[in-house]
Amino acid sequence: MKKSESEISIFEAILPVIVLVVLLIVNVKIYKDNATAGPNQMALFLSGFVAMLMGKLLRKLNYYDLELAAIHSIKHSMQANLILLSVGSLIGIWILSGVVPTMIYYGIKIMSPQFFLPTACLICSFVSLATGSSWSTGGTVGIALIGVGQTLGIPLPMVAGAVISGSYFGDKLSPLSDTTNLAPAMAGSNLFDHIRYLLITTIPAITLAVLGFFVLGLQFSSHEVVLDQVNEVMSVIEKAFYISPLMFLAPGLVLFLVYKKLPALPSMLLGTLAGVVLALFFQEKLLGSNSYEVIIKVASDGFVSETGNSFVDSLFSRGGMSSMLNTVWLIMMAMFFGGMMEACGYLETLAMHLLKFVSGVGTLVGATLASCIFLNITASDQYLSIVVAGRMFREAYQKFGLAPVNLSRTLEDGGTVTSVLVPWNSGGAYFSNILGVETLSYLPYCFFNLVTPLVSIFIASFKIGILKASDNIDAA
Fold first, then answer.
1. How many CA atoms lie within 13 A of 392 on its CB side?
2. Environment class of 226 (CB within 10 Å of its CB; exposed 0-12, middle 13-18, buried 19+)
3. CA of residue 18 relative to chain centroid, distance
4. So where are the chain's domains?
5. 457 with 369: CB under 8 angstroms?
6. Which end of the chain has fewer surrounding CB within 10 Å, N or C?
7. What SS3 class is residue 74?
8. Is the Cβ–Cβ distance between 83 and 272 less than 8 Å?
9. DSSP assigned state of 308
10. In this structure, is the dihedral angle defined by the CA atoms of residues 231, 232, 238 and 241, taken in order, positive or negative?
11. What is the pLDDT of residues 232-287, one digit of tens each?
12. Which of 165, 173, 120, 168 is nearest to 145 (CA)?
């Protein structure tokens, strides 16, 4: 006879998570930055296997049902994996075509080191708000800003934190964002009411983030930048690539397509094709006589810079589908682990135990935030964290007489923004790969992502912006 979820002990439910955490700690200690190149994937796979064994032996579940559940979970990640592979090709082609070098070249010319971090955050905020996509913003504007920051001598973890903070501002708030539409659907609230109530936590969080980047950037005054090095970099870029404002046509096309709600995958592929066209017209010396071979090689294995300048070569030697394979592997293993945990009933058991500590609005919001963060860690996907937590807490919010917008806002405050802080979550794996910065390195500088849950729990504790089911939403 199978155990029901209510009969699963907290120790049984959390044991696979303990195994995962121990393995991840050992991997970081032994392999350090190379932990995501295989060791962490094995940790997730082994932890999922532990959950499967427990489900089979302790809960008497059918192995083939568990296997199908894991496969179904991995299936949810395939869209993200296809986007990752397309972004890998896009990065390589955009370097070959001169798009990325042009964006970096002009970025160096117009940006001041002292104000670079808050400016980068605001640029990504506006782009992500217009497109509704943190991934598209990070994969286009974010890559260029990383290059500019590196040239100006700004530590890359700080630059990545500013890019991610701005990118997730729009992902959380834009009506074009999938998470912005998913959260009210799970909570039973209206999309535009949801957005209006998101402002209560999102505006203070982004304001604090920009102020934080402003203070952080004060240490990088203009006179500290080695101007000779910057000028040398710009000179090398001019010699190696054809630099022109025309190169902005490719990223402009991608942003326009995403704004027009064309899905991310075809948008990225069309952006890659636009890069190919620009390369054929303007980068003849890089293509040589074998244009087709060079383009295919760069799209699959990335661009290799051979300018002779070590800094420029390290900056532009990247991209290609193959560069994303470790991340694809990591996401698949994370979804395998999350699928096994959910199929065995362990995720729901752990989340339901949180409800025992709920005694008021503040603790209810806190429990929702904790569940979303926990699900981002265990289920490894922001969509699952929003869906599962929304399903679990919907009745609890009704019981406390709260309007659905309270739940939908909290789902975004906890689920959307924290996914990028988990190395094996699809969000964390994606941004770590495209920006070239380890997740745990940029985590302390993702001010918006870190502050948002704190703002959410703060206003809930003081019952600020909490709407009762009986209240008039327009009046409130």
1. 27
2. exposed
3. 24
4. 79-324
5. yes
6. N
7. helix
8. no
9. S
10. negative
11. 888 998 999 999 999 999 988 987 887 787 877 888 899 999 999 999 999 998 99
12. 120
